[in-house]
Structure formats: C-alpha cells, structure tokens
Amino acid sequence: MSWMKALENYARTAPEELPKDILLSSTEHTVTVKDAYPKAMYHYLVLPRLPSSLVSSSSRISSLQSLLSGDKEDALRVVKILGDDAELAKSHILEEMRKKHGFEWDVNIGFHAVPSMDHLHTHVISSDLISPALKNKKHYNSFHPTLGFFLHLNDVLEWLTEEKLAGKLHINSAKYEGLLKTDLACFKCDEPFKQIPRLKEHLEDEWKKEKRTAVKQKAMKRVHGTDDGEAQRPAKKTKLASTDETPRTPNKLSEANKAESLA
DNA sequence: GTTCTAGAAC
DNA sequence: GTTCTAGAAC
C-alpha cells in the first residue's frame, strides 16, 4: 500500500525538490505542505522531516501514538516544534482569508487520533469544512472540532506537560474510530443531518452567515471605532462573541482518554 | 488516503 | 428513476 507512505516521502525529500505548488515552507526540522485532498478552503500539513535529530529513532515519529508512547520529553519537543510551524501556517492562512474574503475565521491545529497515513502529521485546517474533497461521514467527523477524533495540538501539549502523566498515554483506537460513525451534525449549530450533501449545503450557509456578520462588524468598527456601537457604554452589559479565540469546551473523549491514562 | 460501484435510501 | 452510502480494492 504505497499511499500510506506518501507523507513519509514528503518528509524524506529535500524541501527544494518538492513541487513549488505544494510546499508552503520548511525549516531544519519540519516541512509544511498543502493537503493533496483538502477538506476545507485552507488545509496544510506540518510534518517532521526525516531523518530527524529530534528523536533517537525515526520510528518514533511514524504516528502520534508512537510518539506518545515514548519518552515524554522527546514527544514534547516534537509537538512544540510542529505547533510553532503550524502557527506560522495559520498566520499565512489568516492573511489569505483577509486578502481573498475580507475576513478571518477559525483555523484548527491538531492530529487525527487514528490517522490513515503513516508519518506524524499536524493538520492546519480552516474551520469552514467546505471542500469538494470532503465527501463522506468519516471525512467530516474526523475534522469536527469538538467531536473528539480531532485532537487539538494544545490538548496534546497539555497531556504531555501534566507531570502526573509520567506514565503512559495510550490512544484507544477502537474508541476513537467509533466516533467517526457518529450521526452527522453541524459543528456550529448542532443541527442534525441525514445526508452529507445536505450537511454540505448547510455548511456553506453557515460560512456565508459568518462572513456577513464579520463584514458587518468591520463596517461598524470603521464608523464607531469599535466592534459594536453599543459596546462603548460600559454600563450596558452586551454579550458579544469575543473576536479572540474563545476557549473550546474540552471534548469528553479526550478527557476520558486522559482519565484512563491516569488510572 | 482515494476510486469505484452495488444496492440501499430516497 | 436518481441520489447516496459504504465496503472492496490481489
């Protein structure tokens, strides 16, 4: 099965040899490429390059599970480096969003709990989940930001930094794979859907709605010098959605997984 | 991971 | 009759 090795090939190729249209950037330790079948408007992968001086054995970075089962300091170093470059890719995406669409929306950074392809890779993916390559339930659920299959990089960092977790961090594959069969529901409004095509229509509507709101707020800011004309009066408590990153509700399965690891 | 397609769902 | 899903791929 050669497709499983596709990412490993990227990781082993000198970045300057990679096609220009797929390479975003590279460093001593990482390479950032466009996902060949993007599941959102913007979708990149950050890979640790091979051979790697970050870990004693290359097999350590064949997967997240493998990384987590090894030395925690090694794992922490690798995840931090991937995270730094993922943040750079995210900044690039946000800039493209501003240029092309006149507003920014969320970009998620994380790992699939049970990946289909070999070699550790971090997804940097815009939260719209609008793309022709998103074709089935597995595709959608694997990037659903709160379902639990998508492991946010910051959560993985937390697992690794909690010193109590000196023991093992195990990913229960069967449990995570079960999540992929979850009934379809919009990650924004929770509305259920029976079919992928209907959900895809809905996601487009959600994105257009988000765009309208963002553009309207920008116009407000131009006129009033604030996000909202009313927000200037401190007496009136307006409940505005923060433009900053709102803390995500910790997903239950990640928490459950952590609890198991602690036990 | 994708492509293809039989047969289920509509 | 057409759309859609889900399992096989040597």
UniProtKB/TrEMBL annotation:
Domain of life assignment: Eukaryota
Coiled-coil region list: none
Spans annotated as Disordered: 210-263
Annotated Polar residues bias: 240-254
InterPro entries linked: Histidine_triad_CS (IPR019808), HIT-like_sf (IPR036265), Znf-C2HE (IPR032566)
Positions with biased composition (Basic and acidic residues): 224-233
GO biological processes: single strand break repair
One GO MF term attached to the UniProt entry: single-strand break-containing DNA binding
Record domain Aprataxin C2HE/C2H2/C2HC zinc finger: where: 146-209
Sequence ranges of Basic residues compositional bias: 214-223
GO cellular component assignments: nucleus
Record protein name field: HIT-like protein
Organism expressing this protein natively: Calocera viscosa (strain TUFC12733)
Source taxonomy: Eukaryota, Fungi, Dikarya, Basidiomycota, Agaricomycotina
